[in-house]
Specification:
This protein has a two-stranded antiparallel sheet with strand order 1-2. The longest helix is centred in the first third of the chain and has 30 residues. It has 2 helices and 8 strands, in the order αββββββββα. Strand 1 and strand 2 form a beta hairpin. By secondary structure, the protein is of the alpha+beta class. It is elongated. Bound molecules: zinc ion (ZN) (3 copies).
Length: 109
Amino acid sequence: MSWRDKVDKWEERKRQAEEAQRQRELQEHQARFRCHICDKASEGPVEYQTIAPIGIETDWDTPTGLTECSHCAKLTCDEHIHKCSRCAKLTCDEHIYKGICQHCAERLY
Ligand SMILES: [Zn+2]
Ligand SMILES: [Zn+2]
Ligand SMILES: [Zn+2]
């Protein structure tokens, strides 16, 4: 094996180790952030561009594809979160009925 092959092999192993590490972190992240209605996991962490140094930062504490319900503060997937037609707050399935959230419904005459 030539020394160049050694460098290639080392690079490949390093890349695989990084990939495996990322998979583990992603699994932990998705175990932590799930829709409380259907158990759908976060689509992944939030990633944002950094300027100095230039690169991509990963925020493992912020899920994507999930929103906090304004009533119970639980994480809810796009399918189970709805906008109240009166107050426009994002509300999970459990606190909205016919497009009207629980708070607004209690104030109806
Ligand atoms: Zn859901
Ligand atoms: Zn809720
Ligand atoms: Zn409302």
